[in-house]
Write a structure and sequence with these properties.
Blueprint lengths: L1 H21 L4 E5 L2 E10 L4 E8 L14 E11 L2 E4 L10 E6 L4 E4 L6
Antiparallel strand pairs: 1-2, 2-3, 3-4, 4-5, 5-6, 6-7
Length: 116
């Protein structure tokens, strides 16, 4: 009976860990290059997500005001553990920008040097 309980507990812990890992990127973020502009990642499956956001009408560095912001998305993303690759090509960016989740700062560190 003790062995059976240990097996069930182990399966439960592994399952919970997998669910938490798969949800690493889902949430709302802030982008220092676009102050006050929305950034949101919505998980679809264990390996895919959609990225939504807005940019200020004044361009990079300008603050979003909620009235004239230019919304974008959904942008397709691939997720693999702590890694994410987003296709920003529909808004003039790279088609495969990769990022890594930073557990300590609860942020995404992008390969272009930006961090959400």
């Amino acid at each position: 009976m003790m062995y059976f309980t240990w097996v069930i507990l182990t399966v439960f812990i592994v399952s919970v860990s997998a669910v938490l890992r798969d949800r690493t990127f889902a949430g709302k973020y802030s982008d220092p290059n676009h102050p006050g502009c929305a950034r949101q990642i919505v998980g679809e499956t264990r390996t895919s997500a959609r990225v939504y956001g807005a940019d200020a009408a004044g361009g990079e560095g300008a603050t979003c005001n909620g009235e004239t912001d230019e919304k974008w998305g959904p942008l397709p993303a691939k997720v693999n553990g702590e890694d994410i690759i987003v296709d920003f090509s529909s808004k003039g960016g790279p088609s495969n920008l990769s990022g890594k989740y930073d557990d300590v700062n609860q942020a995404i560190d992008w390969e272009d040097g930006n961090s959400w």
